[in-house]
Amino acid sequence: MRLDKFLCDCTSGTRSKLKKDIKAGQVTVNGNTVLKPEQHIDEKADEIFYKGQRCVYEQFVYYMLHKPSGVVSATEDAHERTVIDLMGDERRDDLFPVGRLDKDTEGLLLITNDGVLAHELLSPAKHVEKEYECHLAESFDEKQKERLEQGVDIGEKSLTMPAVVHTLDDKMIALTITEGKFHQVKRMLHAVGNEVVYLKRIRMGSLMLDAELPKGSYRRLTEEELDGIFRRDK
Ligand code: URA
After folding, report:
1. Whose CA is nearest to atom 4 of ligand 1?
2. Ligand 1 geometric centre to CA of 181 (Å)
3. Which positions ≥6 away from 77 have C-beta within 8 Å?
4. In the annotation, is 21 catalytic?
5. What does pTM read for this prediction?
6. Nearest CA to ligand 1 atom 2
């Protein structure tokens, strides 16, 4: 890996600032000052110091992103802005979103480079809970609630698995599902005679969307959040 890329991945500096610092002699590799940002290093074996501090490469990184409406849940797209584009130009190039939210859906997305964790969280067999705040076109009633709780026909081979429903307002519910079929929440509400007009994911397993995190922003998961997704969700 290039030295400037390595430093970019394990510090909060921008690539241009780090390049300058390398050229200014602020970086050593195995005790020798290296002045070329493009120099290749072995991130697992080499001892790299930046401004006197040892930099240890993180193999896996985990971010919470507050997805806004209007961006697609993909790593790249020829026409649309993606959730990975929101992570800035200095981001690692191995990041991807864990699962998909529709372009018009907002809320919690886990962004990582850990394929094993992603697989665990998305595997249908694991039944990881996903909770959504749903704003509806029509009043929500007991009959609709019961049907969602029992499972509804959305045109798949079997009914949806029983959902947990909390009525928040006349036209607003919190819906927890353990599957992740295409447009599942919208199709479930349509199946009971209602329509989703706004959808926001607020939880995935133990991971709650940080209410302080502005739309379009991201941050690293805390140690506590990491413990949660590794211990409880797997
Ligand atoms: N269900 C939907 O219908 N859309 C989403 O984005 C997520 C779940």
Report:
1. 183
2. 8
3. none
4. no
5. 0.87
6. 183
Choose which residue among 65, 69, 102 to substitute to test ligand 1 binding: the one with the highest number of ligand atoms within 8 A of its C-beta: 102
pLDDT at 233 over 80: no
Reported as a single tens digit per residue, the pLDDT across 98-147 is 999 999 999 999 999 999 999 999 998 999 999 999 999 999 999 999 99
Q: How many Å lie between the centroid of ligand 1 and the Cα of residue 66?
A: 15
Q: Which two tokens stand for residue 55?
A: 């930099």
Q: Considering only CA atoms, which of 170, 85, 95, 160 is closest in space to residue 130?
A: 160
Reduce the secondary structure of the chain to three states and give it as a string: CEHHHHHHHHCCCCHHHHHHHHHCCCEEECCEECCCCCCECCCCCCCEEECCEEECCCCCCEEEEEECCCCECCCCCCCCCECCHHHCCCCCCCCEECCCCCCCCEEEEEEECCHHHHHHHHCHHHCCCEEEEEEECCCCCHHHHHHHHHCCCCCCCCCCCCCEEEEEECCEEEEEECCCCCCHHHHHHHHCCCCEEEEEEEEECCEECCCCCCCCCEEECCHHHHHHHHHCCC
